[in-house]
Amino acid sequence: MNERYPWLKPVLDFGPLLIFFVVYLLYRNETVTLWGQDYSGFIFATLVFIPALVVSTLGLWALTGKVSAMQIATLVLVLVFGGLSIWLNDPRFFKMKPTLIYLLFAGILGFALIADRNWLQLVLGEALPMRAEGWRILTIRMTLLFLAMAVLNEIVWRTMSESTWVYFKTFGLTLILFVFLLANAKLYRDYAIEEER
Fold it and tell me: 66 — phi, psi (to 5°)?
């Protein structure tokens, strides 16, 4: 199925975030009444995002036969903090969610470094064959990246407008991660494991 529909995995990966963004743009200046309760456009977009992420995660599992620990952790935090934002009608919980996700990832990778485990290789090793030293360097860099992204998310949601945070969450954090992965291209080459011919 994946080979016949190569576009499906990226749609499942990024679809929920784009749905959140579009719903927010459509309703950001509106009040949506559901079940006798008034919600802001942001809370309504969160309400739409949660089931979209659940369906997307189940779709990825059906498509690939597996779901990574990071995807499961993200889903759980979205359910908890998105659910709190809806239940308490308070957007702050959902805005804190990326901070907690990035701190969790940094903590896991930091613990892996201390315990001398190569967990990043377990997750990405098949797609990116590298020697152990390369994985250690990448793990250090990713740990620092996740810490920086957690701090940056806190700064943006606490000091800037809601719309700015939505743009930052949808495009800024994704772009930072993309640039980071590209910036490490030399590391991938220097520590690549040559395939036997």
Answer: -155, 155
- Spatial CA neighbour of 58 closest among 48, 71, 46: 71
Q: 151-156: which pairs have CB atoms within 8 A and are 24 or more residues apart?
A: 152/176, 153/95, 153/98, 153/99, 153/102, 154/99
What is the identity of the amino acid at 165?
W
**Residues 6+ positions from 60 with CB-CB distance below 8 Å:** 9, 12, 13, 67, 71
Residue 87: the pLDDT is: 94
Q: How confident is the model at residue 4 (pLDDT cuts 50, 70, 90)?
A: low
Among 171, 182, 183, 110, smallest CA distance to 146 is for 110
Question: Which tokens in the block code for residue 163?
Answer: 């719309």
d(CA 144, CA 83): 29
Residue 8 pLDDT: 76
Handedness of CA 129, 131, 135, 138 (dihedral sign): negative
Work out the percent of the chain whose per-residue pLDDT is above 90. 65
Query: How many CB atoms sit inside 10 A of residue 40's CB?
Result: 19
